[in-house]
Amino acid sequence: MKTGLVTFLLLFCLTGCITNPPQPVSYYQLEVNSVADEKQAELNRVLLVDKVQLIELFDQQALVQFQRDSKVNIANFHFWAQPPSDMLTWNLINALNATDKTTAIKSDKFYRNAQEHQRLVLEINEFAGHFEKGAVMSGTWYLYQYKEGSYQLTQVQPFQFETALEQDGFSALVSAHQRNFNQLTTQISKQL
Question: Which Pfam families match (predicted)?
Fold first, then answer.
């Protein structure tokens, strides 16, 4: 009995010695452009922005990376601070509002106005790190014009941005994603 107890205590102590220390968890957020102060907009300059649509693989909080041989790596300890679709939607709205070309509001907010306005739909089918290309972001955005009680599609624009990482690591990946997102918001705002 004594030998069994000693063996159990020895194994218990050894188990504690060989476990890995906990990994630190990191959270990331794209930078939010500041909204112009006290912006007064005319009703005909309203832009409704639908919630950004991402393929399910990319709409999770863990950062995603493409690896060689068509493998996908989903990070264990590196996360977006909020779901990517929400983060991208609010950052897009803030970036478009900062341009003073239009007043962008989220389309699920209460907006019942029969005056002409535009609606933006953004679909992202790639939002990940890539083993060769760095950060990749691709998809399509659609611009609709509301006239006489219905929406008419006025523009369809596919996009693809690739930004090489300046160094290894998830912080560099997030910085490259930020540059891709800035290019996308610039492209959209020029078309409004």
Answer: ABC_trans_aux
